[in-house]
């Protein structure tokens, strides 16, 4: 028996999120089915990030156990011949049997994309959030900087989350504009349910001039979801990648 780690990219538009659920087709369900067909075994993957419906990924991570003799690095090629075009394995590799993608120290990077112009662009409707309200990127950048470091992010946690602690560490943030496109990039050691989307919604409120950048500090201190801004739509969010400590990989 061996454990294989997959780096998975997908367009989340047509899926009800990552995790298997009874309400509709998910990325994990598709992976499990094709892996089971490939190996002749009943495969159930373990994912690192349970992205929501409509959220995209360039580098989500999943592992599975198999007795198939195929080398770990070959699974990416075999799977990509079977998977639908909106899911692609970027890398496969054998890892220790005790490697767990959620319980290892890691850094995750997310991007939230905003199309900020007078009218929407149809070809970007699944991959960015459109708003015609002019956004001040410098104010958004100043506000995002207050989030860096270790904080209690309870105000930025979606309802229904079951976690022991809402304390997380944001390692760095970046807000940049290129023409009509604004990208929020955020890297941290872990994120709460809907955390990046709530941060994005709040930063857009600040960019629109509804609050000063310093209002982020009051939101953090409130430890109340109602203190923060709206949850931004899923389609603008992409999980860029997950980096694990080197000593925990082969």
From TrEMBL:
Subunit-level organization: Homodimer.
Annotated binding of substrate, by residue: 110
Annotated GO biological process: tRNA pseudouridine synthesis
Pfam families in UniProt: PseudoU_synth_1
SUPFAM superfamilies recorded: Pseudouridine synthase (SSF55120)
Domain of life: Bacteria
EC number: 5.4.99.12
Gene: truA
Protein known as: tRNA pseudouridine synthase A
Enzyme class: isomerase
UniProt entry keywords in alphabetical sequence: Isomerase, tRNA processing
Catalytic activity: uridine(38/39/40) in tRNA = pseudouridine(38/39/40) in tRNA
Gene Ontology terms for molecular function: RNA binding; tRNA pseudouridine(38-40) synthase activity
Catalytic center residues: 52
Keyword DNA damage: no
Functional note: Formation of pseudouridine at positions 38, 39 and 40 in the anticodon stem and loop of transfer RNAs.
Occurrences of domain Pseudouridine synthase I TruA alpha/beta (ranges): 8-103, 143-244
Cross-referenced InterPro entries: PsdUridine_synth_cat_dom_sf, PsdUridine_synth_TruA, PsdUridine_synth_TruA_a/b_dom, PsdUridine_synth_TruA_C, TruA/RsuA/RluB/E/F_N
Family membership: Belongs to the tRNA pseudouridine synthase TruA family.
